[in-house]
Amino acid sequence: MLKCSIIVNHYRTPEILKICLRSIKKNLKDADFGWEIIVTDSATIEKTEKMMEEEFSDIVFIPARENIGFGKSINIAIEKARGEYFFIANADIIINEEKAIEKMLDYIEKNEDVGMIGPRLLNVNDTVQQSCFRFYTPLTVICRRTFLGKTFWGKKVLDNFLMADVFEGEKITKPIPVDWLMGSAMMVRKSDLKKVGVFDEKFFMYFEDVDWARRFWENGLKVVYFPEAKMYHYHFQSSKKKSLFDSLFNKYARIHIKSALKYFVKYGFRSAKYGR
User: Fold this and answer.
1) Can you list the alpha helix ranges (DSSP code H) found in the chain?
2) Could you give the CA distance from residue 178 to residue 242 in angstroms, rounded to a whole number?
3) Which 3 state secondary structure label does DSSP give 183?
């Protein structure tokens, strides 16, 4: 069995995917363990297929005619993956730091009580990108999606969600347990999925990572923010709107709210806190 399967989720940005794959292969070129790369591609276009065939023929490429969603896309790759560990990433993750994947692998191997870890994500200007959070409550969604987030009360709700009490005035340099991690980059252990399960495909977009992290915690496995490994995330902030109008008519905001409703139907409104 291979040590690590790198699973990359992609949707119609072949030039970005190219940079991502080159950075992963460069990062692992001197690795002393076996690895493979699997790319799952939603709503595949000819340009992506041609690029994968001509430049990355050594990579497993799984196209899909339609946009099948993040969770289902990753689940398809998990079925084919041969590694003991899975590093799961979106195609807009770029790895420049030496041995970043190896650092994550070493940590999760040595800590059997940890089921999921995520690296420190950086914006293109080298500032730290928020990638770990406390679990949502209905108030969190309301404050994120309406003008209430700009009020004194709303800011307190969002500060709690964003773990401001942990990050403000404190540079996190050591691994810490958190409620959930952004699904853009994470590592899990294959054997743990026998207990936890794969992604819940009812979440087409958004909240699939929240749900997965919660199931890891509920099965006695820690979710850990791992800042000792750093990666760039070219995150497209398409859905961060604050007005009620945008909450109703912005496509991504509507999807986010729909996924939030599914999440609260599944877990109820009870709060849960496992991390810092």
Assistant:
1) 14-27, 46-55, 70-80, 100-110, 138-145, 152-161, 164-167, 193-196, 208-218, 244-249, 251-267
2) 26
3) coil
pLDDT confidence tier of residue 246, bands split at 50, 70 and 90 = low
Q: Is 13 exposed, middle or buried (0-12, 13-18, 19+ CB in 10 A)?
A: middle
Torsion of CA 266, 267, 269, 274, to 10 degrees: -150
Which domains are present in the chain? 4-267 (3.90.550.10)
Cβ-contact 227, 106 below 8 angstroms? no
Q: Could you give the C-alpha distances from 261 to 38, 74, 206, in angstroms and in order?
A: 32, 22, 11
Beta strands 185-189 and 114-122 are antiparallel
Checking if the pLDDT of 237 tops 50, the result is no
pTM: 0.92
Rounded-to-integer distance, Cα 7 and Cα 18, Å = 14
Per-residue confidence (pLDDT) for residue 249, from 0 to 100: 56
Residue 179 in tokens? 């409620």
List, as own/partner pairs, every contact residues 61-69 make where C-beta atoms lie below 8 angstroms and the sequence separation is at least 24, other chains included.
Answer: 62/38, 64/40, 66/42, 67/11, 67/42, 67/43, 68/42, 69/42, 69/201, 69/203, 69/204, 69/205, 69/208
Query: At residue 141, what is the residue type?
Result: V
The average confidence (pLDDT) of the chain is 92
Cα 108 from Cα 75, distance rounded (Å): 21
- How many Å apart are CA 84 and CA 90, to the nearest integer? 20
∠32-35-39 over CA atoms, to 5°? 150
Return the percent helix, strand and coil in the chain, to nearest 5.
40, 20, 35
Contact at 8 Å (CB) between 162 and 154? no
CA–CA dist 31, 263 (Å, integer)? 39
Q: Taking every pair of C-alpha atoms in the chain, what is the biggest distance, in angstroms? A: 54
